[in-house]
């Protein structure tokens, strides 16, 4: 009897570990107004923090656009390769305590990432005080 319980517990534990959601990977961003894909973001981990960089622009207006509105060391840097998600930490089922950059206006916002109903839809929220904007990114498999 104890052996069966141990086996069941082991199987349950194994499946719960396998189903742990991870934001790591490639994500397609969707334009709020048109509903069309805009870019591909690669989310990765470095030194225990979560980062995201633009690896592809879908239908860019120019071949090698620069972040003209950005400030500091990101000013006039190529959009492709630009780190836009910076320094998030996992807290239960939410990634937070970092920032996200909007390369269109050069502004940086506090950021929170959270899965929607499944692990293929990521809720990306940028906020400033009580004001926020939410996008939904789709996982690329």
UniProtKB/TrEMBL annotation:
Keywords: Signal. InterPro entries: DUF2147. It holds the Pfam family DUF2147. It comes from the Bacteria. Residues 25-139 form the DUF2147 domain. Residues 1-20 form the signal peptide. The keyword Signal applies. The keyword Ligase does not apply. PANTHER family: BLL5882 PROTEIN (PTHR36919:SF3), BLR1215 PROTEIN (PTHR36919). This is DUF2147 domain-containing protein. It comes from Winogradskyella litoriviva.
């Amino acid at each position: 009897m104890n052996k069966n319980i141990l086996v069941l517990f082991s199987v349950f534990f194994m499946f719960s570990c396998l189903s742990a959601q991870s934001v790591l990977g490639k994500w397609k961003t969707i334009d709020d107004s048109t509903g069309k894909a805009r870019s591909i973001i690669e989310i990765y981990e470095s030194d225990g923090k979560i980062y995201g960089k633009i690896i592809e622009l879908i239908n860019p207006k120019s071949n090698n656009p620069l972040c003209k509105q950005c400030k500091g060391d990101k000013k006039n840097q190529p959009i492709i390769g630009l780190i836009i998600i910076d320094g998030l930490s996992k807290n239960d089922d939410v990634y937070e305590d970092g920032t996200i950059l909007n390369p269109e206006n050069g502004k940086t916002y506090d950021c929170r990432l959270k899965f929607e109903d499944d692990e293929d839809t990521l809720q990306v929220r940028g906020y400033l005080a009580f004001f926020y904007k939410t996008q939904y990114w789709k996982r690329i498999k």
